[in-house]
Amino acid sequence: MKRRLFTILSTIVFTIMLGYLFLLSWLIGFLASKYMAGKSVGERGKFRSVVIPLRKWGVHLHHWLYSLFLISLSSITGVHFLTPEITYGLLGGLVFQGIYSYGDWHIILIMRNQTRVKEGPVNNIKNGATS
């Protein structure tokens, strides 16, 4: 209940601060991410996950992580898709969906032989393959 209330209140605050374009683009980003990503933790979405092999570990770049990087880069450089509201809304929707919808959002380092996809060894990065 607290999580849902916080989500609603923070969305309202950002909408008041940044306007209706932010809210609309945030919804588009959230829904697009919801459609393209796996339905639950460990399920493969429309695209393969980005996992960078690093010795016996793999660095899993979640979609929320590189969306957050793009928000930061856009903010620092001043380069936006159309307007800042649309850029931050679209990417913010991706970040929100990635953190809110999955319980493993905080797991970035994984063992290289650890299989994280329910469909089988598709995500096994033992030999440098990623999913």
List keywords for this structure.
131 residues, mainly alpha, 3-stranded antiparallel beta sheet, disordered C terminus
What does this structure look like?
The protein has 131 residues and is mainly alpha-helical. The protein has one domain. The chain is built from four helices and three strands, in the order ααββααβ. Strands 1-2-3 form a three-stranded antiparallel beta sheet. A hairpin with a 2-residue loop joins strand 1 and strand 2. Helix 1 crosses helix 2, helix 2 crosses helix 4 and helix 3 packs antiparallel against helix 4. It is globular, with a radius of gyration of 16 Å. The N and C termini lie far apart (34 Å). The C terminus is likely disordered.
Structure in a nutshell:
With 131 residues, this protein is mainly alpha-helical.
The biggest sheet, with number of strands, parallel, antiparallel or mixed sense and barrel status, is: 3 strands, antiparallel
Percentage of residues in strands: 5-15%
Q: What is the overall number of helices?
A: 4
Give the low-pLDDT segments: 117-131
Mean pLDDT: 75
Succession of helices and strands: HHEEHHE
**C-alpha Rg (nearest Å):** 16 Å
Shape: globular
* Overall tally of domains: 1
**Strand-pairing-aware structural class:** mainly alpha
Give the proportion of residues in helices.
40-55%
Give the termini separation.
34 Å
Number of strands: 3
Major beta sheet, strand line-up: 1-2-3
Topology summary:
Blueprint: H1 2-18, H2 20-36, E1 50-54, E2 57-61, H3 63-77, H4 84-100, E3 109-111
Antiparallel strand pairs: 1-2, 2-3
Helix pairs in contact: 1-2, 2-4, 3-4
